[in-house]
Design a protein that fits this description.
By secondary structure, this protein is α+β, with helices and mostly antiparallel strands. It contains eight helices and 21 strands. The strands form five sheets. It has a six-stranded mixed β-sheet, sandwiched between helices. Helix 2 crosses helix 3, helix 2 packs parallel to helix 4 and helix 3 crosses helix 4. Bound molecules: adenosine-5'-triphosphate. The site of adenosine-5'-triphosphate (ATP) has 12 residues, from strand 2 and helix 1.
């Protein structure tokens, strides 16, 4: 087990600057997920930790030892890839034990370790099969088994579930989480899937254009995004964003969506006194913070509006209903029976206590 410290790390491919000054301290035993859109540099960062890429600048330390000049195999990390990379001519047991045989471990020890890893992953019955006789999910379990038997200081995962269908992906995600709970080894996991990031991570590191945009526990990023980028990346369906103006009235403040006549009053203290009247802002609200209005008066911090429903997407117990706020399509996550058809006019409660506000120019949170 080991912690990982990354200091001022840069990676250039020729003139292209893929990782642009990353500082990151990963404590021993933590499950860290590197997430971000395609091309943000997350795989490059992972591969540099593994030693598959050389750092252009900066330092990587594993368990207090600087590893920049160490070969991958001397770093004591195990990597699981998207494409499994199993040997087709070897049975599952041989595939899992391959790295141990290469290190000349005694046969009985190899068998014991392979047996333990297979039991942990529920693939004991498959040990005698060849990779071609396995499903995608079973192959990925074998690839993970091969990493486990090495008993590494750190596990590195590079989009390990991308090749699986949706149901298997859900299943394997739980397996990987359970595995971490059991063995408590430091894990660093790359994905572009925000659900995978939210469900697996002790800490999410959200990257954009080679730098860290925000890092922290998943709910911190979800509830207190530092920017529109973070707010839009996490959450499905996405947060809705409405170009608006901040309106000050005495000690209070409100949001006036562009082109709308009625301001939406903000809860007291929601916006600091430093933000002046008339500032252009982006008002962000998540689907789950909009509900069909009940009979009584709205609760404090709730703005009530009339809306015409344009589109209804039922998911079973809930329905996503699209309406327009100042011309911008916004999704509301309603109870299935609260909305029935497009064209319906309903009254909605927007929970402004939970809404986000961003400076329209910088897109940073206010
Ligand atoms: P994805 O989710 O698409 O894998 P990523 O965030 O993992 O994206 P990286 O693979 O780290 O992105 O790549 C970051 C940037 O560096 C990309 O613009 C990519 O084109 C570039 N890049 C990666 N490897 C090389 C290479 N060997 N030579 C030149 N450019 C590279």
């Amino acid at each position: 087990m080991a912690d990982v410290t990354i200091s001022r790390l840069h990676k250039r491919y020729g003139s292209f600057h893929a990782v642009r000054g990353i500082d990151l301290a990963i404590p021993d035993g933590e499950f860290t997920v590197l997430v971000g859109p395609s091309g943000c540099g997350k795989s490059t960062l992972l591969r540099t930790i593994a030693g598959l890429e050389d750092a252009s600048e900066g330092e990587i330390a594993i368990g207090g030892t600087v590893v920049n000049d160490m070969r991958p195999r001397d770093r004591d990390v195990a990597m699981v890839f998207q494409d499994y990379a199993l040997y087709p001519h070897m049975r599952v047991a041989q595939n899992i034990g391959f790295g141990l045989r290469a290190r000349k471990m005694p046969k009985a020890d190899i068998e014991a370790r392979v047996g333990r890893a297979a039991a942990m992953l529920g693939i004991t019955a498959l040990l005698g099969r060849y990779p071609r006789q396995l499903s995608g999910g079973q192959r990925q379990r074998v690839a993970i088994g091969r990493a486990i038997v090495r008993n590494p200081q750190i596990f590195l995962f590079d989009e390990p579930l991308s090749n699986l269908d949706a149901q298997l992906r859900d299943e394997m995600r739980s397996e990987i989480k359970r595995l971490h709970q059991e063995i408590r080894t430091t894990m660093i996991y790359v994905t572009h899937d925000q659900i995978e990031a939210m469900t697996l991570a002790d800490r999410i590191v959200l990257m954009r254009d080679g730098v860290i945009e925000q890092s922290g526990p998943p709910l911190d990023l979800f509830e207190r995004p530092v920017s529109r980028f973070v707010a839009g990346f996490l959450g499905s369906p996405q947060m809705g964003f409405v170009p608006s103006t901040l309106v000050r009235n005495g000690s209070g403040a409100a949001i006036l969506p562009k082109g709308a006549g009625t301001p939406l009053p903000l809860p007291p203290g929601r916006i600091g006194p430093a933000v002046p009247d008339g500032v252009p802002v982006l008002f962000g609200i998540r689907p789950e913070h909009i509900a069909r209005a009940g009979d009584g008066a709205p609760a404090p911090g709730v703005a009530r509006i009339d809306a015409e429903i344009e589109l209804v997407q039922p998911t079973g117990s809930r329905s996503f209903a699209t309406f327009r706020l100042a011309g911008v399509p916004i999704l509301a996550e309603l109870r299935a029976h609260d909305v029935s058809r497009p064209g319906e006019r309903i009254t909605l409660d927007l929970n402004l206590d939970r809404a986000s506000l961003f400076d329209a120019a910088t897109e940073k949170a206010l």
